[in-house]
Design a protein that fits this description.
This protein is an alpha/beta fold and 212 residues long. 36% of the residues lie in helices and 12% in strands. It has one domain: Rossmann fold (3-Layer(aba) Sandwich). It is built from 8 helices and 5 strands. A 5-stranded parallel beta sheet has the order 3-2-1-4-5, with helices on both faces. The radius of gyration is 17 Å and the shape is globular.
Length: 212
Amino acid sequence: MASVRKAIERGTTAAQDEQAGYVWTQSWNSDVFEYRCVFGSVFSIWFNDFLDKRRNEGKVYALDLMSTSAMLTGLKIDGGVAVGLGNITNELSEEQMRERNITYIAGNLLKIQPWNSIKDWLGRNNADGFDLITCRANLSGCHSEYVPRFPSVYYALLDRAWNLLNKNGGVLLVDAPWLIHLEGGIPRELVNDWLKRLKQANVECLYKEGTN
């Protein structure tokens, strides 16, 4: 995957901006309801109902990738992390975010820094992992040039996110953007390999195409 990552970093507008010293401020600001509409076909339980049940076992945490903290602010969690690009404005003030133990990390997920920061956050909170992890790379016309078009990138991100999941019943929800279909779509062998690995680990999984 190193070669794919290097190709993405060379080819995306994000990398060009970064090398030129500019701040990449493109991100998304969807709320819980919009996530529910996207993931409802594969996860029918309302997020907060799921988290309430998890709370019986202890504190609950959530991670949202390629986003602002907007979705996290609608969740009943004891803390969470959102990762996006650039220093963007969130609906909560920094003080309110601290009070709710919500952290926004500005970073490129194709690099190691944000992943290390996420792990550090888990360590500070004495958490084994996140109860809910979401990644919704939603697109609009102005964002398309900023989204990696290589299916292998989303496979690699999925793999890294998986390792941050609470292995005791945590849920990982990922929506790969339709734009990657311009590059031939997600290769079925990648999907089959991932599903096979999950089944071998006795992990319940569900994959659907065109759920948007």
